[in-house]
Specification:
Layout lengths: L14 E4 L6 H9 L3 E4 L11 H27 L10 H19 L1 H5 L2
Parallel strand pairs: 1-2
Helix pairs in contact: 2-3
Length: 115
Amino acid sequence: MWGWMQRLVREDDQAVFGDKGYFSDDLKREAREDGVYWGVLEKRKRGKGLSSSQKKRNRKHASVRAKVEHCFRIIKCQFGYVKTCYRGLEKNAVQVYSLVALGNLYQVRHQLANT
């Protein structure tokens, strides 16, 4: 399944989203054969531009990714989690889970203050 991307995608995933760095015609073809929705942004070929349908598709997928990326901006900018030290898988996992939970609270802080 999909070569090196196998480490990034679980067997039960139904969609894959990513930026242009992950684009590959071969990976796209394999994903479609496996019934996985390929939401990776299209990359222009050398000497050619993107078609209007590719631009429209990229805009649609970028709006989905923007909603997800906002959480990571909060974790990085508000909580300063830009670099990590390896302390063991369990300790690093606990730290990331705590930051994600705090990020969720940070996003709803105004709703919590009004209740």
